[in-house]
Amino acid sequence: QGGTFAFLTPSLAMLSLPSWKCPAWTNNASMVDPTSPKFIELWQVRMRELQGAIMVASCFQIFVGFSGLIGFLMRFIGPLTIAPTITLVALPLFSSAGKDAGEHWGIAVLTIFFIVLFSQYLKNVPVPVPSYQKSRKCHFSKVYLFQIFPVLFALTITWLLCFVLTITNVLPSDTRAYGYLARTDSRGDVISKAPWFRFPYPGQWGVPTISLAGVFGIIAGVISSMVESVGDYYACARLSGAPPPPKHAINRGIGVEGIGCLLAGAWGTGNGTTSYSENVGALGITRVGSRMVIVAGGLVLLVTGMFGKIGAVFASIPTPIIGGMFLVMFGIITAVGVSNLQYTDMNSSRNIFIFGFSIFAGLTIPHWVENNTDKLTTGTVQLDQVIQVLLTTGMFVGGFLGFFLDNTIPVSYDLALPTW
């Protein structure tokens, strides 16, 4: 389990509403004092709005899971619904990835190079690691570290390079110069100001607020994450040698994920939780399917989450490195969405039309709505906000069109559907 990109798009759509747009002065790093009460309240009020939307939307997921509704709905949700939904989670974020990477293309490209090198070219190269077994005592085991930690290794190397370029003043110190955000000190003294120990608690940003626009937008993300999670359940079963999960197990899993989203919202993480496809891949690599390993990993995260310095270190990652990782990760998510089409007959003109139209509409309609918000007015502010958030969330538009068309357009044959 972990934070999900499925909530990112509706969150950005919600925060792009006129009432939540950040003031212009916050875009100038030299004018921002992270410790000032004015700035703190500026981001906390938005966190409270996002927090409330996630908590209410998670109740919907809990209901869908424990009521058994997800098992019933899966008979109507096929590849032509899932493919555009997951694809449009990442595809509209190309501008954000390009903006971050464009702060210093050299660092971004280097990050991409190392990720590709470790994850694709060196993934089958074993690394001897000291280990201990009762029968064999101390010995060296061959572990495919590059296959397990490609992003971590790439991030560490480029991060260290940025640190060296910062202390040697190779990177510019002028905040307006190109490449400044590649410096490791571009975010100020966030590490030194972060407390060593901080215990997070529910409502730490204040009392959550709720709006219809936010709730409906996050529900679109919840639906997308549920669809992705169901696919992960089947993938885990295949990799661990278990039979396909029965409907009651799927219902229980979705319900528990909803509880996780509720807790994440209550604690003010700004995101929900869902099954991690990366962990599914790690399961296939390590062949370890024990739930106790997941429990142990969760305990480690709980402990490290109480140390403020650790979070501050990750917050200080230079922007171009994040942009480079986004280019790779968003590309993979897009490809994962498209890969669902292998379970349907793409020689059928019907299926080609549904997928193509859903994708293109999922890009076109949100773009038009973002630039013509004044033309979508009903006279009710709350309804206008709901419509705007939903229609600017590409995965909702594309997923809904795919779902509607796939279940209403007659099909003469579909050879691959039973496999799905």
TrEMBL record:
- InterPro entries annotated for this entry? NCS2 (IPR006043)
In what way does this protein cross or attach to the membrane? Multi-pass membrane protein
Quote the subcellular location field of this record. Membrane
Keywords of the record: Membrane, Transmembrane, Transmembrane helix
Q: Which domain of life is it from?
A: Eukaryota
Any one Gene Ontology cellular component term annotated for this protein: membrane
What molecular function terms (GO) are annotated for this protein? Answer: transmembrane transporter activity
Residue spans crossing the bilayer: 52-73, 80-98, 104-122, 143-167, 205-223, 293-315, 321-340, 352-369, 385-405
Q: Which family does it belong to?
A: Belongs to the nucleobase:cation symporter-2 (NCS2) (TC 2.A.40) family.
Protein name, as recorded = Solute carrier family 23 member 2
Q: Which organism is it from?
A: Laticauda laticaudata (Blue-ringed sea krait)
